[in-house]
Structures are given as C-alpha cells and as structure tokens.
User: What shape does this take?
Amino acid sequence: MTQATVAKGVAEALDEAPLSRFHLRAVLTAGTGFFTDAYDLFIIGTALALIKIEYHPSPILIGLIGSTALLAAFVGSTVFGRIADIFGRKKIYGLEATLMAVAAIGSALSPNLVWLIVWRFVLGVGIGGDYPVSAVLMSEYANRKNRGRLVGMVFSMQALGLLAGPLVALLILGLGVHGDVAWRVMLGLGAIPALGVIYLRRTLPESPRYVAQIQGRAAEAAAQMQKFTAGVVSAGTEMVTTHAKLTLRQFLSSRRYLTLLLGTAGCWFVFDYAFYGNTISTPLILKAVAPGASLITDTAIALLIFTVAAAPGYVLAFATVDRIGHRRLQLFGFAMMGLAFLSIALIPRVTRLIVPFVLIYGISYFFTEFGPNTTTFLLASELFPVSARTTGHGFSAGFAKVGAFIGTLTFPIVNGDLGLSAVMAIAGGAALIGLLLTRILPEPSGLSLEEIGGEARDVAIAAPAQLDVASV
Assistant: This one.
C-alpha cells in the first residue's frame, strides 16, 4: 500500500465526518486568535485620534503608526507560513500569540512614538504568523461539505474583535479617562485575549493531513484524530513510505501555483488596500464628513456601522458560502462593494451629508464581509497542496497586508490632498481589479482538499527524491 492510499483514507475520514463538537472546539481555538488580531489592528484607529491630540504628529507619522503592524504582517505571514510547511503547523501555533501579547504590553508602555512604531511592528509579525496557520489548520480539520462554513466561522471572530475595539474605547472614554492614558489602556488590553490563545492552542493536535501526507505517519494521524474527536473520525492506520513533497523553488517555479498565487494574493492585496485603508481610518473619515462631531460620537457611529452592517455580513457569509460557492461569493462581493465605493465618490455632496454617507458606507461594509473579506482568507487556505498550503496562504496574506499598509499609510495623505471622494474612487477601482483577478481562480466548493491541491498530479510530475521540503 502506498502513502497516497493511506493519506487518502485519513483525508476521506475527515472529509466525510459529520459536524461535531471537535469542529466547534477547533473553530473557537483558531477564532480566538482572529478576535485578538482584529482588536489589535483596528483599535489603533481610535487610539490615533487621541495620540494626535497629545503628540500632534505629521500625516506621514500618523500613517506609519496606523500601518506599521500591517507591513510587519507581511514578514510574519510569509516566514511563519513557510516554517509551518517545513516543521509542522503546531510547532509554531502559540509562538505568534506570544509575540502579540508581549507587543500589546510594549505598545501601552511606549515612552514615545518611535517605540510605539517598534512595538506595533512586533505585533504585526505575530498577527501575520497567525493567518496561515489558523486558516490552514481549520481547513485541514474540516469536512468537505462544510469547509467554507468552518473556516468562515474562524474568520468571523474578526467581527467580534472589530466590535470590541469601539466598545472598549467608548467605555474608557465614557469613564473620563484622560486621553494620554486612554490610548495606552486601549492598546494594552490586547494582551489579555492573546494570553488565552496561547493556552488554548496547546490543546490542538497537529493537522492529520500533514502528519499522514508529509511526515508519513498515517497511524499516528489516525490515532490523534480518533482521540481528539472522541471517535467521530476513524481512519486507516497502516505504516507506509513518505509522500512526495514540494520545495519552495518548485512551488514558485510552477506555472499552476504562480497563477493561483496571482489570484489569491492579488485579490487579497487590492481588497486589503481598500478595507484597511477605510476601516483603520474610519474615525478620520467620519470627522471629515461631520467635522463638528466629538470623538465619542464618531466612535459610536463607527460601532453602529460595524454592528448593523459588518457583523451580519460575516454571519451570512459563513452560513451561505458553501451553498453559493467560494469563488462565486467573492465575485459578487467585489462587485457590490465596488459599486458602493464608487457611489460615494460620484454622487454629489454625499461626503458632506452624514446620514446618506453612513448608509452607503454601511452597504460597502456589508458586502466586504459578505464577500471578499471572508473568501480571500478561505480560498487561500484550500487551493494549494498540503506540502505548500501554509506557504501559499502565507504569501497571499503577506502580500495582502502590504496592500493594507499602503492603503492605511496613504489614506491621510490622499484625503488631505484630494478629498474623501478621491479616496472612495480609488477604493472602488481596487474592488473592480479584485473582481477581474477572481476570475482566474477555480471553484473549490464541495471538493476535497486532495482533489483541489492535486497531490497525485504533483507526484507524477517530479520524483520523490527531488522533492524534499526541508531543503527549502
């Protein structure tokens, strides 16, 4: 019996497993990290409004403070993503959360803005590392029928982090905490969920697909899943030879995988450019629309937008993505968010009227979540083979955060020089580019990861002796 046969047995057991408590446990464990990621990334928007009052930084410095964590996420995603394919997903699952906890505390204690930027960089490395490992672990635990729902549920924990930021800010500001203390408390509180993540992730076993197909220990993979799932997943246990693996060079020289990377990384790049540029700068956007409103009022409006528009989009996305289709939902979401952004840019004076602006801006938020914000994360976790799955996701997430960095860095500059309508026009153009790039991707909904990744085809292309993942 060959490794491919036994690995297929392990994979089939996972693909056909009914939704069970072990799926929920994996979702909560992986999702808690995304709650922390979202809180840490987006709370800086409110904190910046207070930092501006205390330090009076230039627009470029404001952009750096808001975007440094996003640039660092490129480093974390690409490095941790590759390491997870070489040494295993679980080897680093928790290390990235430790970086987030330490960096949150360091940010709160920063003596000046230079140190704040340094700690935000460390934070971003941890956040970036969390993306590929959490996404791929959940994808590899999931069954074929509900993979989109389960991975989407992990990502939807971002919504809670997105809501937690304005809630925490309102509470702190409502208590009358002085501004120079308030922003430090907001940033430091990110360490609390990160510490919980470290504990939770020690309880998850290694990905059974990785153990069987890459490490050649199908019996161990079957035993781990039998125990973790309380008997829900049962697979073959024969000991056989190791499955062939891809090196980084072979991965990057494959036309097939480069095309997939163009689609996954390209779509995610343009999406994050528009999404993070707007989301982190939401307090600044609302101040531009309603200059006379207080920070508490702007924060409350932002919370209303996230609650009424964004949160339902997350829920509807994971509830329907497997029925609609992963690629199809991304196409629809890009089209609708692009239409909303361009409406704000082109309708006369809408950026001067708070109610119409908030309505259209809220529609854009709904379709970012019920669309590419969920599906870019999902598609990158399932389109690549097991030996390069976190590598592919890491590259995609990393380049996405470069887009987020550019969007967040340039927003204050473009808004100041050209106005809010120009910012929205650029965001609408980015959405249309994402729509076009999505068309080069296949539809993975309903297929097994092994069918999507084409491991058997890779084995036929290259001899096993040439495919040593440890050689990078």
Notes: Confidence is low (pLDDT under 50) at residues 1-8, 456-472. The two ends are 28 Å apart (CA to CA). The chain has one domain: 3-446.
